[in-house]
Specification:
By secondary structure, this protein is mainly β. It has one domain (13-109). It has no helices and seven strands. It has a seven-stranded antiparallel beta sheet, with no helix packed on it. The protein is elongated, with a radius of gyration of 17 Å.
């Protein structure tokens, strides 16, 4: 049986993103990014997002962006990150429609 014949086909997306490092001088780093996400298997709208990330000495990151997804999932996003000796802790505040703002916390270990 093919996927499109099933009642609930798997989601498929076409995603394109680009980033540009605006500033790369010790101790400062500033990156700008843009992302477009188009679901191909449904009639949902294209999602757009853009943002910027500032790093100080590779230790502390401040992030600010804008998210525009289908429905009323849109608005400003904010975040902060701390990186030290291969460990990175990130926090983000993201608007998520009727659910209000959603907080995300992640821990990355580089080895």
């Amino acid at each position: 049986m093919e996927d499109r014949e099933q009642a609930d086909p798997l989601p498929q997306n076409l995603k394109l993103g680009i980033s540009y490092k605006l500033l790369n001088s010790n101790p400062h780093s500033l990156i700008f990014g843009f992302d477009i996400d188009k679901p191909t298997a449904s009639d949902t709208d294209t999602a757009l997002s853009l943002g910027t990330e500032y790093w100080y000495r590779g230790l502390i990151a401040l992030r600010l962006g804008y998210l525009n997804k289908e429905g009323n999932v849109k608005g400003m996003t904010q975040g902060i990150g701390i990186s030290y000796r291969g460990y990175q802790l990130d926090f983000a505040n993201i608007p998520w429609g009727e659910l209000g703002n959603v907080q995300r916390i992640s821990l990355t270990i580089k080895f």
